[in-house]
Fold this sequence. Notes:
The complex is a heterodimer of chains A (314) and B (668). Chain A is an all-alpha fold. Chain A has one domain (2-313). Chain A has helices spanning 2-33, 43-53, 64-83, 99-119, 123-154, 159-167, 175-191, 210-213, 219-244, 258-282, 291-313; one strand at residues 56-59. The longest helix of chain A has 32 residues, at 2-33. The two termini of chain A are 36 Å apart. In chain A, 60% of the residues are buried. Among the domains of chain B are: 332-554, no CATH class; 593-602 and 614-667, no CATH class. Chain B is mainly α. The interface between A and B is large, with 79 and 84 residues. Strand 1 (56-59) of chain A pairs parallel with strand 3 of chain B, so a sheet runs across the interface.
Amino acid sequence: xxxxxxxxxxxxxxxxxxxxxxxxxxxxxxxxxxxxxxxxxxxxxxxxxxxxxxxxxxxxxxxxxxxxxxxxxxxxxxxxxxxxxxxxxxxxxxxxxxxxxxxxxxxxxxxxxxxxxxxxxxxxxxxxxxxxxxxxxxxxxxxxxxxxxxxxxxxxxxxxxxxxxxxxxxxxxxxxxxxxxxxxxxxxxxxxxxxxxxxxxxxxxxxxxxxxxxxxxxxxxxxxxxxxxxxxxxxxxxxxxxxxxxxxxxxxxxxxxxxxxxxxxxxxxxxxxxxxxxxxxxxxxxxxxxxxxxxxxxxxxxxxxxxxxxxxxx
Amino acid sequence: xxxxxxxxxxxxxxxxxxxxxxxxxxxxxxxxxxxxxxxxxxxxxxxxxxxxxxxxxxxxxxxxxxxxxxxxxxxxxxxxxxxxxxxxxxxxxxxxxxxxxxxxxxxxxxxxxxxxxxxxxxxxxxxxxxxxxxxxxxxxxxxxxxxxxxxxxxxxxxxxxxxxxxxxxxxxxxxxxxxxxxxxxxxxxxxxxxxxxxxxxxxxxxxxxxxxxxxxxxxxxxxxxxxxxxxxxxxxxxxxxxxxxxxxxxxxxxxxxxxxxxxxxxxxxxxxxxxxxxxxxxxxxxxxxxxxxxxxxxxxxxxxxxxxxxxxxxxxxxxxxxxxxxxxxxxxxxxxxxxxxxxxxxxxxxxxxxxxxxxxxxxxxxxxxxxxxxxxxxxxxxxxxxxxxxxxxxxxxxxxxxxxxxxxxxxxxxxxxxxxxxxxxxxxxxxxxxxxxxxxxxxxxxxxxxxxxxxxxxxxxxxxxxxxxxxxxxxxxxxxxxxxxxxxxxxxxxxxxxxxxxxxxxxxxxxxxxxxxxxxxxxxxxxxxxxxxxxxxxxxxxxxxxxxxxxxxxxxxxxxxxxxxxxxxxxxxxxxxxxxxxxxxxxxxxxxxxxxxxxxxxxxxxxxxxxxxxxxxxxxxxxxxxxxxxxxxxxxxxxxxxxxxxxxxxxxxxxxxxxxxxxxxxxx
Lengths: 314, 668
C-alpha cells in the first residue's frame, strides 16, 4: 500500500514535470517539419519560468472566479494525470475516479476555463468560450464512447483494469478498438486544440478557439493554464498509450519492471509527439463549422466501435 | 401493526392538514401588513422540514395504512405510507423547505392582499402534492391530483393582468386536464372489472397483457403530460416562466416528480405484470425528450424558459432510466434493474435540489433587475456575489460535473448501460449502446447550456446601465439558496450513504437492492473491479493540489497584481454590447440543429435608421402537432355552433329529440 501511494505520487509528479517536455518536443518536431530552426526542447520550461516571475495584469472588472479558474484547471489536470496509468498499474487512488469520472474531470476544467473567459466581458472571451463548448459537446460523448468500447471488452470502467485486460490479451485483435483508436485520435486533436480543429499558435480572431479564451490571462495565471494545457496533452497521450498500446506498463506489485516501463513510456511519448506534429504539418485547419462534422465523425466512429463490439466480439 | 408504526403516517397526514389550515389562515393574515411573509411562510417551511423527516423515517419503518372518513359516503380516503411514498415525501419536504424559506424574502415586496392569496394557493399546492403521494385509492389520488393542478394553475396566473401569462395558464390547465382524463381512464382499466378503486384491490386484479398494456400506455400519457414528456411538453416552457420564481421552483423541482412517482407506482406496484416493449418505448421517449429539451434549452434567450427546457431534458433522462429499468426487470436481470432504479431515484432527488436552486436564483436576479431576458443582463457576479456563487453550484451540478450530485446519477445510469451485454433479446443489445450515446450527448449539451446560463447572466459586463444598481438578495433568500446548494454538495459527496438510504425503495419496486462493493468512502455498484467512484477522495485531491499550487506559487514566486483595462484589440472602445448575447451564444447549436426548430428572423431594412435584428427559435412540434389539433377543434366548434340559434323552439326540439333517443336507447 505504501509503495502504491509513493508510486502514485511519483507518477503524478513525473507527469507534471515531464508534460512541458512533451510540448517542447512536439514544437521542435513541428518547426523541423516546417523547415524552421527549432527552439530548444526546454523552451516551455523557460516560458513558464518567465511567466511566473511577471506581475499579473488583470482587468478592472475581473471577478474572483477569473483568478480562481487557473488553479482549478491545473488541479483538475493533475488529478487526471494521476489516475491514468502511465508507468505503473498499481494506483491506490484510481478507485476514486474511473474512466467516466475522468471525462468529468476534463469537463470540469473546461467549464471553469470557459466561465473565466466570459468573466471579463470582451468579445473574444465569449467567442472562445462558445467555440470551446461547441467542440466539447461533441468531443466529450465521443470520448465516452471510446471508453465504453474499451470497458465493454474489459468488463470494467476502471482504467487500471482496462489496461491490465488489454495488455494481457496481446494476440487478440479487436476490430472495435480499431474504430475506437481512430475516434480517439480525432478527439485528442480537437480536445488539445491542435490542427485541424484549432491552431495553438494562432491569434487570428477568425480561427482561434482555445487562445481566444485565455487572451486576458497573463503571468502566473497564464503559466498555470499553459502548464495545464501541456499536462492535458501528456494525459491524452498517456491515455492513448494505455488504451491502444498498453504493453510495457508495469503490472501490479512488480517493481522491477518500473525502469523498463519508464523507458518504454518515454519512447512511446516521443513517437506519439512525432506523429502528432507530422499530422499537423500535413493537414490544414478546417472552417469552424466543419469542426462539428469532424467531431461528429469521431462520435459516429465511437458508436460504431461499440456496435461492432456487440456484433463481432460478444 | 403497532400504534408506533402509524406515527409517520399520522404525522404526514397531520402536516397536510396543517398546510391546509395555514392556507386558510393566510387569507385572514393578509389584512395585517407583513404577517403572511413573516409568519405563514416560516410555519409552512417548518411543516416541510417535518415532512422531510417523516418521509425519511418511512424509508425504514414498515408500511402503514390509514382510512380517513371524509369524502363521499362509502368512499373514504385511503392513505398509505410505504418506502416509495416516503422517498418522494422526503424529496418534497427537503426541497420545499429551501424554497419556502426563500419565499419569505421573495414575496416581501408584494402587496399584502396579493401575497395572502398567493400563500393560500402555495400551501394548498404543497398539501395537494403530499396527498398525491399518500393516496391509496384512485378517488383520493384524483382529488389530490386536481388540488395540485388547480392550485398550481392559480399560482402560475399570479400576474394575470398580463395576457401572455393568462394564455400560458390556460395551456397548462388544458394539458393538465387532458392528462387527468387519461389517468381516470387508466384507473378505470386498473380496477379490472370489480369496481373497487382502492389500490389494494388493484394490486390483486389479474390483467391480460393487452389490458395491462392499455393501462400502462394511459399512465404513460397521463403522467407524461404532467412531467413534460415530448410531445406533451408544450405547456412547460410557457407555464414555468410565467409563475413567480419560488412557484416555478416547486413546479419544476417537485411537481414534475409526482408524475414520476405515479408512473413508478402504477408500473411497478399496481400492475402485476410488466412487458419488455414498455421499457423500449419509455427509453425511446425519454431519450427523445432529453435531447429535444437540451437542444431547445441551448437556444433560449429568456433565463426561466431556458431552465424550463432543461427540466424537460432532466425528465427525459429520468424516463429513460425508467425504461431501462423496465427492460432489465422484464428480462429477469434484477441486479441491473436495481442499479438503474437507483440512478432514476437519485436523479429525481438531485433534480429537485438543483433545479429549485437555479429557479430561485433567477428569482433573485429578477427581483434585483426586473429583467428576464438574458440579453439585458450580465456582470451580476460583482453586485450579487451570494446569488452568483450559490447559483454556480447549481449550474455545475446540473451540468453533471464531479464532485457534485448531478454527476453521480448520470454515472450510475451510464454504468447501467455498460452492463447490458447478455440481455436475452439481441436487438436490445444493439439499441442500448446507441441509447448510451444519446445520454452522453445530452449530458455534454447540458454543460453547454449551463455555461451559457451562468456566463451570460452573471459574468461579463452589465449589458444595461441599470444593472449597476442591482442589489444582493435578502437573507431569507440567501438561506433558502444555501440550503439547496448544500443539498447539491452533500448528495454529491456522500453517494454511498444516499444509495444505502434508497435501498428500501429500490427493493420495494424491483425486489433487489444495489450492492455496494466499496467502503463507506467508495461507491462501487456491482463490484469494485468493475467500476468505482469516491467523490470525497476526488474532492480532497483536487483541493489539496489546488492549495499546494497556490502556496507554491506564492512562496517561490509572488502574488503581485496590477489592474488594467481589458485588452481592446486596438479598437477605440470596447463596450458591453460586444459580448455574446444569449442568441449569439446559442447560435452554433441553432445552426446544427435547425431542422428541429422553426426559426423566425426579423431582419432590418437597409434603410433603417435604427436597425434591429431579432430571431426566435420556436418549437416545431407546436406547429406540426398542436396547431392542426387547435384548428380542428375550432372548426368542429364552428360547426357545432350552427346548432345554436338563440331561438327557444329549437332548443325545445333538441331536448325532445334527446329524450326520445335516450328512451329508445334505454329500453332497447
